[in-house]
Design brief:
This protein has 15 helices and 37 strands. The strands form 8 sheets. A 10-stranded mixed β-sheet has the order 1-5-4-3-2-6-9-10-11-16, sandwiched between helices. A hairpin with a 4-residue loop joins strand 34 and strand 35. With 626 residues, it is an alpha+beta fold. It is 24% helix and 33% strand.
């Protein structure tokens, strides 16, 4: 059980929600069931309402749809809890309640005092109770709520300080329940990953889950239960495919941009874990030489990130496992090939949106930088000792006696990063020891006369490395991205196949949000929508994106140059008659700007060069020389 202190959350997020009345969903009388033939199924839905119910009635929306005429051989049991308020009459936050689905709604069959849905005993007792009351040939457990990746777990109970089921707790609950299941499903974000698959692999045949953020529209339960009623002989794989196809259809109807559903054959998990361990050991061996270490770390900047990946929206620290392997194969060929083959064999079906094309369907933990790493917590959920060692070599000082790390310490002792500029727009970074550099970008800041501060607006990674003299060279383009004609802060969060995904920090009403924006390679920008990001102290990833509409007002937020964790709000941006934000590269507004090289070294530490000054006057963008 992972306890999180709700007091740490922003007051803007700690709103008290009021229960609103709604139509009758919970019914009192048992209805007659139609006769049945074929296999028996019992589906157990563990519905942790959390903020999804409090803010948006998300759980209640699902419950309102569940007036399903199920035959006697199909039973659906739902456990509700985990929320400080409910928008369904006769469902109460002070109780854990069990319901069965019938033709005219849901009927309560059990009620007990409140317990944390982030406690393994709550999940375990629900599975035991349901499987005993409704024995079947086939079992499926579905966990509905937020997810938080390998470290964050799943099912965040807002009544209990956002306590969640860690992966060891999830595994423990399934062990004690003692029911081998056909399917473990997660209607939650960031749950299709190798670590979660490892946690549930002994207790189910297949896992169906979302690799990235779960679309807000989620699973289509009425369609799923109708399918089971009409096709009780279906294989577990076919049922999982049905779930994925329904999620894809709903996401398309709702114009949801996050779609990354996958089905994993859990009988292949042992080979997948062994492949991860083999690749990790090969990558750890790169610590024997600083040049091999540098090449490896450069390659690891390329896999597509899942969930949050910026200071503002938070860090999920998950990447696509297949891309992780494909980008490292030039350095550790055979182990990476083995990992790709293992992913392809384990993941038997995917439905990916356009921003996830080329993803393998299953993620793996990889921190974005040292400040984002949760290495202590990861050790408890890692798939192998070899992968744990690899993470520790990259993001801690535990292996500071390795040849590469010792060389790094020696080189950093007299290293310096110096940037020079000229009137032709050339900005050059020189490093005494460039071999310690992992990733480089040029960051722009604009001067605000009111606050007399420079605010961050954009980092351009279109930088060329010149190995002959060990310098990085950048040419000022004279354009920066703007939103509705205003400079905003844009942070790169992922490079997915053919797209760069950016995050613009904003507030909307009382909500802290990010506007997710996709830029096609060689093309324009597409605004994906508002996303509330990842809880700083919970790792809870919000589901889906919210589309902007006419009349919405967002307020850009800017990070202050050289003042850690200080942010300033800018001027409001109002959504006009088109109902859209427009992001485009334009000549910057008149004023003074500075740019610096932002440098990440091979052990995830961040550095900055000296600044160069730019003036923008009537469309002319001029770099000063130094």
């Amino acid at each position: 059980m992972k306890r999180r202190l709700f007091a740490y959350l922003s007051p803007l997020l700690a709103a008290v929600f009021i229960v609103s009345g709604c139509g009758r969903v919970v019914v009192q009388n048992e209805t007659a069931r139609r006769s049945s033939s074929g296999d028996t199924w019992t589906v157990m839905m563990y519905m942790c309402g959390s903020t999804l119910e409090e803010a948006d009635e998300g759980a209640s929306d699902v419950l309102r749809s569940l007036n399903c005429d199920l035959p006697e051989n199909i039973n659906v049991v739902i456990e509700t809890g985990g929320s400080r308020s409910w928008h369904t009459e006769d469902i109460y936050p002070d109780y854990i309640q069990d319901f069965v689905v019938q033709s005219n709604g849901i009927r309560m069959i059990n009620q007990q005092g409140a317990m944390s849905m982030g406690d393994k005993d709550t999940l375990c007792s629900f599975i035991k109770r349901s499987s005993k009351a409704y024995p079947a040939k086939h079992y499926m457990t579905v966990i509905w709520d937020h997810g938080g990746g390998a470290v964050g777990g799943v099912a965040y109970d807002s009544k209990y300080e956002f306590d969640s089921l860690s992966l060891p707790e999830l595994s423990g609950a399934l062990t004690e329940a003692g029911i081998k299941q056909d399917i473990i499903g997660f209607d939650s974000s960031l749950t299709s990953n190798i670590e979660t698959a490892e946690a549930v692999s002994l207790y189910a045949d297949y896992m169906v889950a979302s690799e990235d953020v779960m679309p807000a529209s989620g699973w289509d339960y009425k369609s799923l239960f109708t399918y089971l009623a009409d096709n009780p002989q279906s294989s577990a794989v076919d049922v999982c495919k049905k779930i994925c196809d329904d999620v894809a259809a709903r996401a398309e109807d709702e114009n949801e941009t996050f779609l990354s559903m996958a089905v994993t054959d859990l009988s292949k998990q042992t080979m997948l874990s062994l492949a991860v361990d083999g690749a990790a050991q090969a990558m750890s061996a790169c610590d024997a030489d600083i040049y091999a270490k540098r090449k490896l770390e450069n390659l690891l900047t390329r896999p597509g990130h899942l969930g949050g990946n910026s200071r503002w929206e938070g860090y999920s620290n998950m990447v696509d496992a297949r891309q992780f392997a494909s980008f490292t194969r030039s350095l550790v060929a055979s182990p990476s090939d083995n990992l790709m083959a293992a992913v392809d064999e384990a993941v038997v079906y995917t439905r990916m949106g356009k921003y996830h094309e080329g993803f393998g369907g299953i993620g793996v933990y990889l921190p974005s930088d040292r400040s984002a790493a949760n290495t202590d917590q990861y050790g408890a959920v890692a798939t192998s000792a070899g992968y744990t060692e690899f993470i520790e070599r990259s993001f801690t000082d535990k292996y500071s006696d390795s040849p590469a790390h010792m060389s790094y310490n020696e080189l950093m002792a007299d290293n310096a990063f110096t940037a020079t500029s000229d009137l032709n727009g050339s900005f050059v970074l020189s490093a005494v020891h460039p071999e310690v550099i992992k990733n480089v970008g040029v960051s722009y800041y604009m001067y605000n006369k009111t606050d007399q501060k420079y605010f961050y607006i954009y980092t351009d990674y279109d930088v060329t490395y010149k190995p002959a003299d060990g310098t990085y060279q950048y040419t000022v383009k004279g354009k920066l991205p703007q939103t509705n004609g205003k400079n905003v802060s844009m942070q790169l969060v992922s490079r997915n196949n053919g797209y760069s995904i950016y995050s613009i920090p904003v507030t909307m009403g009382s909500d802290l949000c990010s506007i997710r924006v996709a830029k096609a390679d060689g093309g324009g920008y597409t605004v994906m929508g508002l996303w509330k990001g990842v809880g700083k102290f919970t790792a809870m990833a919000e589901r889906g994106v919210t589309k902007l509409k006419l009349g919405d007002v967002v307020t850009p937020v800017y990070e202050v140059f050289n003042e850690a964790n200080r942010y300033i709000e800018g001027r409001d941006i109002r959504i006009g008659l088109t109902g859209k934000l427009k992001v485009e590269d334009k000549r910057p507004a008149d004023g003074t700007y500075i740019m610096v090289y932002s440098i990440e070294d091979i052990y995830g530490n961040m550095h900055q060069s000296n600044a160069a000054t730019i003036t923008s006057t009537k469309g002319s963008f001029r770099l000063s020389s130094n």
